[in-house]
Design goal:
This protein is mainly beta. It is 7% helix and 35% strand.
């Protein structure tokens, strides 16, 4: 059969630099005679997607197994850093590293304590720990174990962390594994309704008191004095009583 005389191999779809995290769009399949197939040639795109290049590849160059690095063989974290993010290392001590319990994959908050203003504030929140390292250093002529925590942070947060290390002290706070889930508010049971005795009794109408206006008091009656008419013959005389 004619198809048995050919096979497909994976080649670079474009120029690929060193340490490229390979995607499906970076590669393509080409058909070649089986006699032209070389040892180590990849024949399936899925075997290369997600791997990192250990060498530069030109467009059309065949991809071999020796060109790929496993994730645990990489000497840097650059392939883990997405665009607009950065890896930042913070020097710390045994206490600030939670007694050495921090592990890659943990998520932490950073709290900045400002010495001059004597106050603290949350610097960044919910960031992934990429690596935890230990090395020996000299402090006052004595050997001391120095711990370092590498975090994945946003690009603008890297500058904030650098400035914070110069002005204060950074405290690392470990977040819960399952994330920050606020507790549900407690629901209080409704109070039972108590039948009121007043409700069964008919309500009495309360007379509405009208505001009384100022009524002027009546003036005392003045006794009107009248004269007594005394008649003597054809003479009339008025006599006023005392």
């Amino acid at each position: 059969m004619a198809s048995a005389r050919y096979t497909e191999i994976v080649v670079a779809k474009r120029d690929l630099p060193l340490r490229t995290l390979l995607k499906k769009d970076d590669l393509r399949l080409v058909k070649i005679p089986r006699s032209a197939k070389e040892e180590g040639d990849l024949t399936c795109l899925e075997d290369a997607v997600g791997m990192v290049l250990a060498a530069e590849l030109a467009e059309g160059q065949r991809l071999k197994k020796d060109h790929l690095l496993q994730e645990n063989q990489l000497a840097s974290f650059s392939h883990k850093i997405p665009p607009l993010w950065r890896a930042v290392t913070i020097s710390t001590d045994e206490v600030n590293s939670l007694s050495g319990m921090l592990l890659p994959g943990d998520r932490v908050d950073l709290i900045l304590f400002q010495r001059e203003e004597q106050k603290s504030q949350v610097l960044i929140s919910d960031r992934e720990v990429l690596a935890v390292g230990r090395q020996l250093g000299l402090e006052n002529g004595e050997k001391e174990q120095i711990l370092s925590i590498t975090l994945l942070v946003k690009r603008e947060e890297a500058a904030k962390i650098a400035a914070a290390e110069e002005t204060g002290r950074i405290r690392i706070v470990l977040r819960p594994l399952r994330g920050e889930e606020p507790p549900l508010p407690a629901v209080k049971p409704p109070k039972p309704k108590v039948a009121s005795q007043k409700a069964s009794q008919p309500q009495k109408k309360v007379p509405v008191r009208q505001s009384q206006k100022n009524i002027p008091e009546p003036e005392p009656e003045v006794e009107v004095r009248k004269p007594i008419l005394l008649i003597q013959g054809s003479k009339f005389q008025e006599i006023w009583p005392n």
